[in-house]
TrEMBL record:
PANTHER family: TRANSCRIPTIONAL ACTIVATOR PROTEIN LYSR. Keywords: DNA-binding, Transcription, Transcription regulation. This is Transcriptional regulator. It comes from Mesorhizobium amorphae CCNWGS0123. It holds the Pfam family HTH_1.
Amino acid sequence: MRARQLEVFIAVMRAGTVTAAARMLNISQPALSQILLHTEDELGFTLFERVKGRLRPTPEALEIFADAERLSAGLEGLRRKTTDLRLGRTGLVRVAASPPPAMAILPRAFTRFRAQHPNILLRSHMAPIAAIIDMLRAGDASVGVAMDDRLPPDIEAEVIGSVGFSCLLPGGHVLAGKTELTLADLVGEELISYRGNTRPADELAHAARAHGVALSPLLEIDVSISAVGFVQAGLGIALVDALLPWHQFAGLAVRPLAAGPKFPIALLTSRTRALSRADEMMRDEIRAACSAVLGEDATRA
């Protein structure tokens, strides 16, 4: 499967129709259909069944889709790298981070790095941990920062700190009268928190069992920053990481979760890719920034 065929296949898988896929790729529908037919002919099996105007992936298409996405990500990374080399951007540091460290730690790290190395281009990606891992493997990011250290063996995770949880309450909530909250205080409240099978959700569930309480969020979120609007709208109390500067948001009362669990802040790199000198300097700045941010949080608490 050639690069253009790969691009068309992924677009159709994601869009579900030839019209939408052609619009995504900015090509005509006949051209896309022709590429798709040639691809199926070369592969020797059908990728899509035509059902009521939509394209339904065959079992064979579903089988190869994940591999196709990984190949596409690698090709896109290669395109960006060759562009950087063509434009002379050999001094380039790419950092991928999940939202809390991207918002709380990277601004400080980038500020110090820029002051010392003003001519090195910085590229920041905010992404979930699964995407960060893919970017590290593809070389589209050299350094990652995430709030989990349970990673595949080809990804090295250096724990550079740990963080607990904060409770975000709507303005005027009765529990805002307390200086800190416990898991027991949250029993019976309408909770907003992380979806299952994530590191924070696992840590909270384990802590709840240890304290003999049952917590069941009525609204699940993927990233903590998304809880702000829900709390401001009065939909419940959010139980989220304590890393983000929650006090900057209006309409919230922020209280620490006392005796709650902690989860790690990890610096991620690929074991199969060497870091450049610039990458190593950025890694040092991220370590220092994390220590400073956590120290400020401890002082404020």
